[in-house]
Amino acid sequence: MSSVPVTTWSLEQTSPSDLLPAAAPEGDAVRIVRAEVPSPEFSRFLYASVGGDIRWTDRLGWTHARWAEYLGRPGVETWVAYERGTPAGYVELEATGEGVVEIAYFGLLPAFRGRRIGGHLLSFGTARAWDLADRWPDLAPVKRVWLHTCSKDGPYALDNYLRRGFTLFDTKVELEADLPTPGPWPGAFLGD
User: Which H or E element spans position 42?
Assistant: First the structure.
């Protein structure tokens, strides 16, 4: 099996004032709603649908029980962007202890990319990371929000994070197996 170099960038914000919000899409067609009831089926759908064409594979083998356990942890939240009632993308937050929140996953389904939803969703999700402890009183106040992205993600991912006020704190290059993408299924819309 062949290998490919993959660059991973880790970024952070250390104050809510670091956030540089993107403009919201015009009109009221896009809404962002918290999925308050943990649903392994829905979360797996979002994960596979957003990451299928960019090689998100680490959770594909998770059992229903593992998804349920993860989603039921205090400080794990899923915020979903809907365009006219259809799921367009999501941001998943995970409190990792001591006032730190990771934006564990973020992205759009392929048909919704390039429509000015991503910057808005990232801005909204980052703001929800900063106020996460307000919804989970047993958690410490948030003092750091971080994430990582890699060269397998979309071509505009890193730039979107930088434009939202995240700063780079680590870069790594590692060889990874060159695996085929797990999806989308043949004939699915891939954008332009």
Answer: helix 40-51
